[in-house]
């Protein structure tokens, strides 16, 4: 009781600070382009060539089509539900099965962390070796790299996205250099156009082997296209997301897809696929073979900026996904805790960074890249089905609507590329299986905690 006789009432609980809407249309377009560009094209082009031969451009062309199909579904869904949880939110609304929702969300998060880990591995590879003779073990370099990105992410979304813009411009410059080298080679009569139709398969020359080789190359090459789905997890930090996202995603996928096919053509034209396959810095091989006296060390530095950008955005995506899942009560509420001063999801950033360190310590570039693609192809199949199921759930605002045939084809192609027809190594399925098993374990623990608190 107070001295006036009125009861003392507790102050209302302080509201958790919300995320900051700092991303405008132009910034989002650069974010999408920067998210897609990077590790895939700079580091795994040679491994894709090893699966298909000189016809390196074909897997990237097919991957471009598959990416556009699924991008259309994401655009419709983010327009209807502009929330940070992305595929997890769409899965829950479509199927209302919390366990499936959690597994999809966990697969998306792990795909981003596998991608960031592949980027960290690429950072510590041939491009860095071109610049320095650092004696530190590559794994240690990759771990320090992840920690540095986590610190930048904690600074704030504005700082992270602005860094992304700078790095995006740098990596676009690197790919422009490759295209300029290709144009010079064509005008000079250099290169071997015959390689562009040269199909090779590690499994032999039969029709079935060539088919699985192309599918396997497409599945691995699809790693270069992942990233547009990350952007939907930034929906709550984007100004007017219903109008901003369609243009940003379609422009981003179109620009990067065109660049990828052209870079693949130039790479195959100038360098034998076996040389590309044996390098963890395949585009550096193109620069060396291009007939233009461009500084090799400068291009290696550009490539390092590119893989840094990929890792930064994927760490950002995974932490925002944790934030979104916590708000949906799929993960404990603590995962949604925001750093009051910086307004960044601090617990989510720490959690995903620790997982990324675990992945980077146990995998190499190709395996981590293929794991990323496999996990996301499974998710994309579910998202494409979800957009059809959710047609029966209208919303009270206008939004983009994709033609029905696109998500149907998108789901089928995603499942084919995720299947054993894609001829991927068994280690990819094993790694993905372990990650899903970890997710199941977390689900069980979370349910037990909620039940003990009477929240289930």
How is this structure best described in words?
With 456 residues, the chain is mostly helical. The protein is built from 18 helices and no strands. Helix 1 crosses helix 9, helix 1 packs parallel to helix 11 and helix 6 crosses helix 15. It starts with 24 loop residues before the first helix and ends with a helix. 55% of the residues are buried.
The proportion of strand residues reads under 5%
Please identify the structural class as seen in this structure. mainly alpha
The low-confidence runs, each spanning 5 or more residues with pLDDT under 50, are 1-16
What is the general shape? globular
SSE topology sketch:
Blueprint: H1 25-36, H2 39-43, H3 45-52, H4 57-80, H5 87-95, H6 98-123, H7 126-131, H8 138-155, H9 157-188, H10 207-221, H11 241-270, H12 273-277, H13 282-289, H14 296-327, H15 346-360, H16 365-389, H17 405-418, H18 426-452
Concise account of the structure shown:
The protein is mostly helical and 456 residues long. The protein is built from 18 helices and no strands. The longest helix is centred in the middle third of the chain and has 32 residues.
């Amino acid at each position: 009781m107070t001295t006036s006789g009125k009861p003392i009432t507790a102050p209302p609980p302080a509201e958790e600070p919300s995320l900051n809407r700092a991303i405008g249309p132009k910034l989002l377009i650069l974010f999408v382009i920067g998210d897609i560009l990077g590790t895939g094209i700079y580091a795994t082009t040679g491994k894709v060539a090893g699966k298909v031969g000189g016809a390196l451009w074909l897997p990237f062309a097919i991957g471009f089509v598959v990416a556009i199909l699924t991008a259309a579904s994401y655009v419709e869904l983010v327009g209807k539900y502009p929330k940070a949880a992305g595929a997890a939110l769409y899965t829950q609304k479509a199927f209302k099965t919390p366990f499936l929702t959690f597994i999809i969300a966990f697969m998306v998060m792990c795909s981003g962390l596998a991608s960031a880990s592949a980027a960290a591995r690429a950072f510590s590879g041939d491009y860095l070796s071109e610049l320095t003779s650092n004696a530190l073990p590559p794994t240690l370099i990759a771990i320090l790299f992840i920690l540095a990105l986590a610190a930048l992410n904690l600074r704030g979304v504005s700082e992270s996205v602005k860094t992304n813009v700078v790095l995006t411009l740098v990596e676009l410059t690197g790919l422009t250099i490759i295209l300029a080298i290709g144009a010079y080679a064509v005008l000079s009569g250099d290169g071997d156009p015959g390689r562009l139709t040269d199909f090779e398969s590690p499994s032999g020359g039969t029709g079935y082997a060539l088919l699985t080789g192309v599918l396997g190359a497409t599945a691995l090459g699809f790693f270069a296209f992942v990233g547009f789905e990350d952007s939907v997890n930034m929906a709550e930090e984007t100004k007017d997301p219903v109008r901003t996202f369609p243009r940003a995603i379609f422009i981003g996928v179109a620009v990067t897809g065109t660049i990828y096919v052209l870079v693949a053509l130039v790479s195959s034209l100038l360098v034998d696929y076996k040389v590309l396959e044996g390098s963890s810095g395949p585009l550096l091989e193109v620069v060396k073979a291009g007939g233009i006296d461009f500084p090799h060390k400068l291009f290696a530095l550009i490539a390092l900026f590119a893989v840094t950008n990929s890792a930064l955005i994927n760490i950002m995506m995974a932490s925002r996904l944790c934030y979104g899942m916590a708000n949906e009560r799929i993960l404990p509420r603590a995962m949604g805790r925001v750093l009051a001063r910086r307004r960044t999801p601090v617990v989510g950033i720490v959690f995903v960074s620790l997982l990324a360190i675990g992945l980077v310590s146990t995998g190499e570039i190709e395996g981590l890249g293929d794991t990323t693609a496999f996990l996301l192809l499974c998710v994309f199949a579910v998202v494409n089905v979800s957009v059809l199921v959710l047609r029966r759930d209208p919303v009270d605002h206008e939004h983009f609507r994709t033609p029905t045939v696109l998500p149907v084809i998108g789901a089928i192609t995603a499942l084919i590329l995720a299947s054993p027809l894609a001829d991927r190594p068994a280690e990819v399925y094993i790694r993905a299986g372990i990650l899903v098993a970890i997710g199941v374990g977390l689900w069980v623990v979370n349910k037990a905690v909620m039940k003990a608190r009477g929240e289930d």
